[in-house]
Amino acid sequence: MKIAVIGTGFVGVVTAAVYASFGHQVFGLDIDQKKIDKLKKSQVPFYEPNLQELLEETQTKQQLHFTSVYKEAITDANLVVIAVGTPSRPDGSVNLDYLYAACESAAKYLSSGVVVAIKSTVPPGVFTQVETKIKSVFSQDFELASLPEFLKEGSAVHDTLHPDRVVIGASSDAAFTLLETLHAPLKAPVLKLKPESAQMAKYAANAYLATRITFINQIADLCQKAGADVEEVIKAIGLDQRIGSHYWYPGLGYGGSCFPKDVKELAHFAVSVGFDSNLFTMVDQLNSSRLDQLYLDFKNLVGGFAGKTVALFGLAFKPQTDDMREAPSLAFVPKLIADGARLKAFDPQANAQAKHIFADELTQKQLQLGDSLFETATNADVIILLTEWPEFISFDYAQIRQKSKPQWIIDTRNRLDAQKLRQLGFSYQGIGRTL
After folding, report:
1. Last residue in a domain, options 149, 171, 193
2. SS3 (DSSP) at 414
3. What is the largest distance, in Å, between two alpha-carbon atoms of the chain?
4. pLDDT tens digits, 389-435
5. Which of 341, 414, 413, 347 is CA-nearest to residue 379?
6. I want to staple 140 with a disulfide (CB 3.0 to 4.6 A). Which of 21, 112, 215, 298 is the partner?
7. How far apart are alpha carbons 45 and 328 in whole angstroms?
8. Statement to judge: residues 38 and 181 lie in one domain
């Protein structure tokens, strides 16, 4: 079948490439011509493992095409997937302007019976407005469906090819049949839901995972005060089958492009339907205030940062991505500079992003981006692990230990060997750890 995917961001590019790998004719559509020109050369504007190879393979087979022309992508398409951004407004509500604009632009070239599937994250009930936008331009029959994604940055290609489930929200057999057939190669369970349920499922999944992170961070803080160790607590509760040992990440809080946005939007939606007091508002507040408090704790722990050489290990919000949206480094860099630290940083993939984000700090020589982990760590008084890249965990810290002075390692991911580091002479501090 012919498939058009509107939006070539993280979700759109991965979706288009995977559908093309199934043998369909897929057109990735975006109004940003520079982005389209790069994608035609299989140049991905962000780092995502295995994605470039998939783009090269599917474009070589002429199954995947990129264009900025709506007519080329939409005409005669059996399926139109909308994967544009739905960012949050300052009040936490979702901004659907890009979604509505894409619907109106695509409607001019739709064919009778086409299925329009919304992959963008949208609140329940949005189909009424979407249908109105399309019908204002297109008078023939079409089907609407919700097709939420549950991808993780850093493993998006794998997640798309090996999903836990495929969630389809629709009101017609035609839409269910087409989308179920499309996803058959994945051999994954298919859940056929009401559109509103599918839309809520996306928010619920992200909000629950964000809540787990917020919960264990609260427990970690209590452990710090009580002399307990959060990692031991995780082992104990993880053996309870009702709880499980997965997805416990004590640290600086959740970040990235999805969790902060989706929690804020779900909190706003809850208030809009009458739940002024709701869990999601509290989760958002606790996560938002966490970085400031922990930074002050670290500052007091090391006796202030003024005049100290501080090395940040990691700039992206998580490993296997260069995404710095809502990353702890965005808060730590200006705070450390304001407190008089001599600041160095390194990330295996996010250095290029950091050069743009911290352009002023680099120009003023308030921040130095290292070309290697060793270079960044050399002569450091304090090393702060912000992102658990494998090379940071396996790094031989003995080679940068200077016995002539005290050195701190602050492990905000609880991934380093505390006992070994202390044996080397480092002062070590994790999150909620007393080892």
Report:
1. 193
2. coil
3. 78
4. 999 999 999 999 999 999 999 999 999 999 999 999 999 999 999 76
5. 341
6. 112
7. 22
8. yes
Residues annotated as part of the active site: 258
Q: How far apart are CA 291 and CA 421, in angstroms?
A: 25
267/122 same-domain check: no
Q: What pLDDT, on the 0 to 100 scale, is given for residue 435?
A: 66
Q: Are 347 and 378 in contact (CB under 8 A)?
A: no
Domain count across the chain: 2
If you average pLDDT over residues 295-318, what whole number do you get?
A: 97
- Cα dihedral sign for 256, 259, 264, 269? positive
Beta-ladder partners of 14 = none
CATH of the domain at 90: 3.40.50.720
3-state SS, residue 170: strand
Question: Rounded to whole angstroms, how far apart are CA atoms 161 and 145?
Answer: 21
- Taking the C-alpha atoms of residue 147 and residue 212, their distance in angstroms, rounded to an integer, is 25
Handedness of CA 57, 62, 67, 71 (dihedral sign): negative
* Mean pLDDT of the chain, nearest integer: 96
Strand 367-369's sheet: what is its strand order? 367-369, 342-346, 309-313, 382-385, 408-411, 427-429
Helix (H) / strand (E) element for 383: namely strand 382-385
Tokens of 327: 């990353």
> Closest Cα to residue 346, out of 371, 321, 318?
371
Structural domain including 225 reads 194-435
3-class secondary structure, 217 = helix
Contact indicator for 74, 80 with CB cutoff of 8 Å? yes
- pLDDT category of residue 134 using cuts at 50, 70 and 90: very high
Residue 185's pLDDT is what? 97
Query: Can you say whether residue 7 is alpha, beta or left, with left for phi > 0 and alpha for psi between -120 and 50 degrees?
Result: left
pLDDT digits (tens, 9 = 90+) for 59-90: 999 999 999 999 999 999 999 999 999 999 99
Last residue of a domain, one of 144, 169, 193: 193
Q: What is the β-pairing status of strands 367-369 and 342-346?
A: parallel
**147 in Cβ contact with 179 (< 8 Å):** yes
Question: Mutual orientation of helices 279-301 and 259-272 as an angle, nearest 10°?
Answer: 140
d(CA 54, CA 77): 22
The model's pTM: 0.93
Q: Are 315 and 350 in contact (CB under 8 A)?
A: yes
